[in-house]
Design a protein that fits this description.
The complex is a heterodimer of chains A (about 500) and B (about 240). Chain A folds into two domains: about 240 residues, no CATH class; about 240 residues, no CATH class. Chain A is mainly α. In chain A, about 75% of the residues lie in helices and about 0% in strands. With about 240 residues, chain B is of the alpha/beta class. Chain B has a single domain, classed as 3-Layer(aba) Sandwich (Rossmann fold), CATH 3.40.50.300. Chain B is about 35% helix and about 25% strand. A six-stranded mixed β-sheet of chain B has the order 6-7-8-3-9-10, sandwiched between helices. In chain B, strands 2-1-4-5 form a four-stranded antiparallel β-sheet, covered by helices on one side. The chains are: A mainly alpha (about 500), B alpha/beta (about 240). At the A-B interface, helix 12, helix 17 and helix 23 of A face strand 6 and helix 2 of B.
Chain lengths: ~500, ~240
């Protein structure tokens, strides 16, 4: 039976319509995985030595045990975003003579072999081998190893339970933040408590039964959960949320563009992928803290240009690079309805410009790090509006891949094409170059002004630029309509 | 008036549509029938400028559709679910289409209130997004949205498929009224010969992209069509 399942998945993988197209992305992901594996292997091999150096008076295994809890919590958060329960195309199997028990067990077993679990082994195994070489008792090391293995799998299965409800996730994230806070300010060292627990596990090999028991428990919970979902009306059919009507009446002042702005706001508000994209933009606003608190970076103004463009333009790049793919599922309607293409593009540009203004306003507290930073961010905002907005729209005309709005944007390569790779260089590189030349010739102030003026020139020529872009979108219309129809 | 001249569409030497000339006068209810792959949807997509013709063109009310966007204000259509915006409620979708066609909310409300029967209480005020409606209800919403804003040309691809019998009968009445009372040019395609003969004044049969019959509907049309499609089925049996 398992042979059949594997056979089905093999065919699903190699016969999927976008197999050839996304092979480059798969190779890229493969390299990323290899890189991660290499890093973890390196850590695993040298962890013992490094800890010995850092904490000469404490036994390395105790140090590892003390901080193990953070690794577990980190994995939980990391996996929440990255790992999804492997889906087997269950629907056609339901009416065949295969027991639900078998399907359930297969799906769960398959998840145990996920790369996420295997990656952890890359540091655990070499570390355990080092321990054995250093003469630690074999029974203890072995039972500790089995405990860790169980924990990895517990995290694996726990993740699927957590994935069902956002509330679980936010509580875990909350616990993590509070724990780090308490630890950092030395109020209460949670790691010490858990450290004791893990040390106990190491010292008493028999206790390995506890993690193994927990593993059985979470497996059973998942099993029960999943088996109950194997009905057409349970989870395979999408659950529908109650629709709330919003009218965003305040956008009416934008006149003819108002209906499009309202549509885009609803698009962002009601669909997972664009919503997460906006959420990430706000998080990235804090990126400035990273740049501005490092004196070394402050001395290189070009880096500050990078920060300025990034902070005020993060929505521009994250949202803009997938125009018009956001509307891919109904693009043929948009193209045959009473919508001139120019108006469609204008409304997208307006939304983006609006975001740049808002992000700039939100970034004004960075004036704390010096008025030059505020001035530079203002110039960067102007540049983003004048030059980068039309440029992103221009490059986005290469998009012709469909986007599923309800999927998470994390590690989601759907809709990726050359446009997303090309966009980075002119988006960040060009403003840095424009800034550098006058900076080297004169000073920081002049360079800031030059950058802003170039942005203003772009704004003045907006009409001409938009006309050119509209023409380009027109010529690509048929390819877009055809491309967006293709289901991945 | 929709004038098709020398229109053809080829995909890598495979001709999927080839219409030398076809004129649809204003206010006609026009039916397009044919088996799968006959070119019905291709023709409608060309009419909406969603695909590019290999040769020739279509002129709608004097506008060459693949050269100007000016046909958009008086043309509306529902081809498939990809014409719906899944994350809107039906009401929001109607209002959106209404705004595109210069209708305010009151106009849209008064239009949709006429279709309460047709909606059967399953569309309006249900607090559901379009993506969560059943296929049949999605279709109903899409068809009614195509009627918003007094279009002069309405294009409906397979409007009867997926609908329940009661709704099919109601839809037939709606389409008839549009052409007869309001002078709207309605283009409909269907696999169902009976429905098409019921609603359309004129029926064109496509086969492998070619127009092979062009009939004024009269009491014998259904028989004639059934004989035509039946004979190809018999011929197929004989071949076997």
């Amino acid at each position: 039976m398992i042979k059949h399942f594997i056979n089905l998945e093999w065919k699903q993988f190699f016969r999927s319509s976008n197999f050839g197209k996304s092979i480059a992305i798969k190779i890229f992901m493969g390299f990323m995985a290899l890189y991660l594996a290499g890093v973890l292997l390196f850590i695993g091999i040298f962890l013992f030595k490094a800890l010995k150096k850092l904490f000469p008076e404490i036994d390395p295994i105790v140090v590892v045990n003390n901080y193990l809890v953070y690794w577990i919590l980190f994995e939980l958060v990391f996996r929440y975003f990255m790992q999804k329960l492997p889906v087997l195309n269950i629907k056609p199997l339901l009416i065949l003579p295969i027991s639900r028990q078998k399907i359930t067990n297969y799906v769960l077993t398959k998840s145990a072999l996920s790369p996420f679990n295997i990656l952890s082994l890359f540091w655990i195994i070499p570390f355990c081998i080092t321990l054995l070489f250093k003469g630690y008792p074999g029974v203890n090391v072995l039972s500790w190893f089995i405990s860790l293995l169980s924990i990895v799998l517990i995290v694996n299965f726990l993740n699927f339970l957590i994935n069902k409800k956002n509330a679980y996730f936010y509580s875990i994230l909350g616990i993590l933040v509070i724990a780090i806070g308490l630890e950092y300010y030395k109020i209460f060292e949670i790691s010490a408590v858990f450290g004791d627990v893990f040390n106990m596990l190491y010292n008493n090999p028999i206790l390995v039964l506890i993690p193994m028991g927990l593993l059985t428990l979470v497996y059973y919970l998942n099993y029960k959960n999943l088996k109950g979902l194997l009905f057409l009306d349970a989870s395979l059919k999408q659950k529908s949320e109650e629709a709330k009507t919003q009218d965003f009446a305040w956008t009416n002042r934008f006149g003819e563009m108002a209906p499009f702005l309202q549509l885009d706001l609803k698009l962002i508000w009601r669909n997972k992928r664009p919503r997460m994209t906006v959420f990430l933009s706000i998080i990235f606003l804090l990126y400035g803290l990273y740049f501005y608190t490092q004196d070394k970076l402050l001395e290189i103004p070009i880096i500050l240009v990078l920060a300025g463009i990034f902070i005020t333009g993060i929505f521009l790049s994250n949202f803009g690079q997938f125009i018009p793919s956001w509307d891919s599922s109904y693009y043929s309607m948009m193209m045959s309805q009473n919508i001139p293409l120019r108006k469609y593009l204008d409304s997208k540009a307006t939304l983006i410009i609006f975001s740049v203004v808002v992000l700039f306003l939100l970034s004004t507290p960075y004036v704390y790090f010096g008025w030059e930073i505020l001035a530079l961010n203002f110039s960067c905002a102007l540049y983003n509006i004048g030059i980068n907005t039309p440029m992103v729209l221009l490059i986005s005309s290469m998009n012709k891949k469909r986007i599923d709005l309800e999927k998470s944007p994390m590690m989601n390569t759907q809709g990726m094409s050359a446009a997303q790779w090309i966009i980075v260089f002119p988006f960040l590189g060009l403003p840095m170059l424009i800034y550098t030349i006058p900076y080297l010739l004169s000073n920081q102030l002049i360079a800031t002004i030059v950058l802003g003026v170039i942005g203003i020139i772009g704004i003045l020529f907006r009409n001409t630029l938009m006309n050119k872009i509209t023409r380009l979108y027109r010529s690509k219309k048929y390819a877009m309509v055809a491309g967006f129809k293709e289901q991945n | 008036m929709i004038i098709t001249s020398n229109l053809s569409k080829k995909y890598a030497n495979n001709t999927v549509l080839n219409i030398e000339s076809l004129e649809i006068p204003k206010g006609q209810s026009f039916g397009l029938v044919g088996n799968n792959g006959a070119g019905k949807t291709t023709y409608f997509s060309l009419l909406l400028d969603l695909i590019q013709p290999t040769t020739g063109n279509i002129t709608s009310n004097g506008v060459v559709v693949n050269e100007s966007e000016d046909w958009k204000p008086f043309t509306s259509s529902f081809i498939d679910e990809s014409f719906l915006i899944g994350y809107l409620t039906p009401e929001e979708y109607f209002y959106f289409i209404g705004e595109l066609r210069g209708q305010n909310k009151a106009d849209v409300d008064s239009l949709t209130s006429k279709f309460e029967d047709f909606f059967n209480g399953e569309i309006i005020g249900k607090k559901k997004y379009l993506r969560d409606l059943s296929k049949g209800n999605q279709k109903k919403a899409g068809i009614v949205a195509a009627l918003i804003g007094n279009p002069e040309v309405i294009i409906l691809d397979e409007p009867f498929a997926n609908l329940d019998p009661t709704t099919q009968i109601r839809l037939k009445q709606i389409i008839k009224d549009l052409a007869e009372k309001q002078g709207v040019t309605v283009l409909v395609s269907s696999h169902d010969l009976m429905h098409v003969t019921d609603v359309c004044e004129r029926i064109v049969v496509l086969e492998k992209g070619n127009v092979i019959k062009d009939l004024e509907t009269n009491p014998t049309t259904l028989k004639e069509l059934e004989a035509h499609f039946g004979s190809s089925a018999i011929a197929y049996q004989e071949e076997e």
